[in-house]
Amino acid sequence: MNATRTRSMLAEGMIIVAVLAAAHMLLVQPAERRAAQAAATLASMRATIAEASESAASAAAPGSERADRLQEMSERSRDAARVYQTISELGERAGVRIDRVQPTPFVADARTARGLAGVGCSISASGSYESIARFLDALQRDAGFAAPTAVRLAPLVVDGAEMVQASIDTAHRAIDLEAIVAGASAGPSTEDDE
Predict the structure, then answer these.
(1) How far is the C-alpha of 22 from the C-alpha of 28, rounded, in Å?
(2) Of the spans 7-16, 41-50, 61-70, 122-131, which averages the highest pLDDT?
(3) Given its phi and psi angles, is residue 115 left (phi above 0), alpha (psi -120 to 50 degrees) or beta?
């Protein structure tokens, strides 16, 4: 080989190396950077998903406890025997003498009746004004989904002691969560639907 041919081959080799280096810088390095960024984004997303899963699990526990509590309160309000037992216990705790508990019709509001049932009661009780007030408060707090719908008080004197005779109408609502969820997923009802 002569010297010009050797120089020519060296020049061509240098050109090929330069073209390969340029191609690497223009094509391969940007692709490597994008791949590294994608890997970092993927790792970040996996961490976010793991955190969200942990958060969802910890958030679901109190929701489940609340749903269990709502279910227990609804069951208490659905069963007339349990309602009467609860009224007797609350009256005893408040220092009220329960004279009579009678069932009354439970009428749900037509706009919110889906998934709502219950028991109505007419209660005749006597005691001091304070004990009647404690009894009414306990009915609202401790008797499930219960609320006095009407209260009539009359003075009463027993053995020289001033007392109060109370006539209390109550509504004990039982919520069927499954019917409400099914109704919510079906959308609002109209009179044509029924």
Answers:
(1) 10
(2) 122-131
(3) left
Q: Give, in degrees to the nearest 5, the angle at Cα 171 between 89 and 96.
A: 30
Report pLDDT digits (tens) over 17-58: 888 888 888 888 888 888 888 888 888 888 878 877 777 666
Amino acid at 159: D
- Residue 118's closest CA among 82, 164, 160? 82
- The residue type at 140: Q
> What span, in angstroms and rounded, lies between the C-alpha atoms of 169 and 123?
6
Shortest CA distance to 134 belongs to which of 166, 90, 169? Answer: 90
Task: Give the CA-trace dihedral at 9, 10, 13, 18, to 10 degrees.
Answer: -140
